[in-house]
Design a protein that fits this description.
The complex is a heterodimer.
Chain A: H1 19-24, H2 29-37, H3 39-49, H4 61-69, E1 77-82, H5 91-98, H6 100-113, E2 118-123, H7 128-143, E3 159-163, H8 173-181, E4 204-208, H9 209-221, H10 223-227, E5 237-244, E6 250-255, H11 260-266, E7 273-278, E8 284-286, H12 297-302, E9 311-316, H13 321-335, H14 341-358, H15 366-380, H16 384-388, H17 391-401
Parallel strand pairs in A: 1-2, 1-4, 2-3, 5-9
Antiparallel strand pairs in A: 5-6, 7-8, 7-9
Helix pairs in contact in A: 2-6, 2-9, 3-4, 5-6, 6-9, 13-14, 14-15, 15-17
Chain B: H1 2-11, H2 18-29, H3 34-44, H4 48-57, E1 69-74, H5 77-81, H6 84-95, E2 107-112, E3 124-126, E4 129-131, H7 136-143
Parallel strand pairs in B: 1-2
Antiparallel strand pairs in B: 1-3, 3-4
Helix pairs in contact in B: 1-2, 1-3, 6-7
The chains are: A alpha/beta, B alpha+beta.
Chain lengths: ~400, ~150
């Protein structure tokens, strides 16, 4: 088994986790460089690196930044999406716990590059420790004067940490804006996209924690730094949260292109796994015949699965995957925001049918109904929650037809 | 409510501060009392109905009183694989019905969605701090007031 060099997580377990230690190990050099080369060049390096969003949607980060950088409105925001709530996902927590300053440096570079007039860090309400750590680290940066000279009008940059209220949907960017604004986190139809009309209807960059953690190295060492790892089409490394039936559940950092089987081996996956759920509740089940798949955007597309948020949940052969699907169904029914009918009603009906199947009391017509329902939810829901609420169920039905289930 | 007025003063009267104000009210009163919503209406210009629309949307805010100490037990997939169902049953047995504090108002428990502690499954939060992995005896300890 190959050992992979930690890049994003290289300061994990470091004895000292303060600003002084961060600077002594090369920290803040990227922010200084960004300031020396200017916003336009900073964004160009990011675009050239090929960095794409790590929250699940894989949108090119440089394009987002460039849209906001060149926006006409002088009021702009940067939002760090720390609402990590996809079941099975804990990489952003580990990232911040390991290296809060690298995340904050990335955020400050983003603010500088798009001439942001303010920044918000939206931390899920259940991550109290993470919010405290960010607050304390931010204070150190502020006291050392690093929040000066970023805001275009010369004021000290205002970075506010906001606690979420306990709602999965607020990880969806437009719902997240509503939540910061003081409303129910109900997603809005896109377009307009956040880069045009985001937080407070102003041009806004929203980035995931892992995405922003990649920024300092890219700016400090150039676009090639990211491209020296991973694959041509998926440059860099990726954090995976591995849980379930593995001996060492943890966050693992591997270069894109690493086989899934290797990741499972690193985590001590049981020899006789039945399946893994890739990408969290909104992901798909993957079975041993596909464990050789390459963990890259092109590699998962080839096998009709997704990296999603980087969640990998492993199941042994004793697991009844219909019971797992019932849990996923319950999750979506609980987390649907309720504003659109296909999702509000669809997730409930889906959960009822999954509960019936999990209990072994199916009447025979559930699968056909689930399939039709999944089509409606996918086509007609406003946001990604409803659109993906049946993805895992569909993959489970496919696997059942192919005879891949142990139960 | 004077105390709610103070919390609004220290946080801000802008609509964007509503969630932050509600978090503080919840932390002190263990729910959002009607009188607090009325103070918010007067001071922040957010109608009572609107405030409760927000309160009922978010899991960490409650319309009815919960315990001064809340135990949140994750019931999503990774925790379920590690026995969260038995822990939920134990909580029900030891601490009573979900969401309802005992007569002394000390403790209540609730099921919750993934806490992002799947590497320490089965996971829980107690007083908003991770309690993971959660064991049956932890629940008994909470019930006895020892945790």
């Amino acid at each position: 088994m190959a050992m992979h060099e930690a890049v994003l997580l290289r300061r994990r377990g470091a004895e000292q986790r303060n600003l002084k230690a961060y600077v002594a190990s090369g920290g803040l050099a990227a922010l200084a460089k960004a300031r020396a080369i200017g916003p336009e060049e900073t964004v160009r390096i990011l675009t050239d690196s090929g960095l794409v969003g790590r929250g699940g949607a894989a949108f090119p980060a440089g394009r987002k930044w460039e849209s906001v950088r060149t926006a006409k409105d002088p009021i702009r925001y940067v939002v760090l999406n720390t609402d990590e709530s996809e079941p099975g996902t804990f990489k952003d927590r580990v990232m911040i716990e390991s290296d809060p300053f690298m995340v904050l440096e990335g955020l400050l570079i983003a603010c500088y590059a798009v001439s942001a007039t303010g920044a918000y860090i939206y931390v899920r309400g259940e991550y109290g420790r993470v919010a405290d750590l960010l607050q304390q680290s931010l204070r150190e940066l502020q006291q050392a004067g690093h929040l000066e000279g970023i805001e275009p009008q010369g004021r000290p940059l205002r970075v506010e940490i906001r606690r979420g209220g306990g709602a999965y949907i607020c990880g969806e960017e437009t719902a997240l804006f509503r939540s910061i604004e003081g409303y129910r986190g109900e997603p809005m139809a896109k377009p307009p996209f956040p880069t045009v009309a985001g937080l407070f209807r102003k041009p806004t960059v929203v980035n995931n924690v892992e995405t922003i953690a990649n920024v300092p190295d890219i700016i400090a060492f150039g676009a090639k730094a990211l491209r020296s790892r991973g694959t041509e089409r998926s440059p860099g490394t990726k954090l995976f949260s591995v849980s379930g039936h593995v001996a060492r559940p943890d966050t693992y950092e591997v270069p894109f292109g690493t086989p899934l089987s290797e990741l499972l081996q690193m985590a001590g996956g049981e020899a006789d796994l039945q399946a893994v759920l890739m990408g969290g509740a909104a992901g798909t089940f993957v079975f041993p015949k596909d464990f050789d798949l390459a963990l890259s955007y092109e590699g998962v597309a080839e096998r009709h699965t997704t990296l999603g948020s980087g969640a990998v949940i492993a199941f042994n052969r004793q697991t009844n995957l219909w019971q797992v699907a019932e849990r996923l169904g319950r999750f979506f029914a609980h987390e649907s925001c309720g504003q659109c009918v296909p999702c509000r009603v669809g997730t409930r009906r889906q959960h009822e049918m999954l509960a019936t199947l999990a209990a072994g009391r199916g009447q025979g017509d559930e699968r056909g109904l689930l399939l039709r329902l999944s089509q409606v939810m996918t086509d007609a829901s406003i946001c990604g929650l409803g659109q993906t609420a049946a993805t895992a169920v569909r993959s489970l039905m496919d696997a059942e037809s192919a005879g891949l289930l142990a139960h | 409510m004077n105390r709610v007025g103070e919390l609004i003063d220290e946080t801000g009267t802008e609509r964007t501060q509503l969630l932050e104000v509600l978090h503080k009210v919840q932390a002190e009163f263990h729910h959002i009392p009607r009188a607090a919503a009325e103070t918010i209406e007067q001071r922040m210009n957010v109608p009572v109905a609107d405030t409760y629309g927000v309160v009922t949307f978010y899991d960490l805010l409650t319309e009815h009183p919960v315990g001064r100490n809340v135990l949140r037990i994750c019931e999503d997939v990774p925790c379920c694989l590690h026995g969260s169902e038995e822990l939920v049953a134990e909580a029900e047995r030891t601490l009573g019905p979900e969401g309802q504090p005992g007569a002394d108002g000390a403790v209540s428990w609730t099921r919750c969605a993934c806490l992002g502690l799947c590497d320490q499954a089965p996971a829980a939060l107690y007083r908003e701090e991770p309690l993971a992995p959660l064991h049956r005896h932890d629940i008994a300890g909470i019930g006895d007031g020892h945790a």
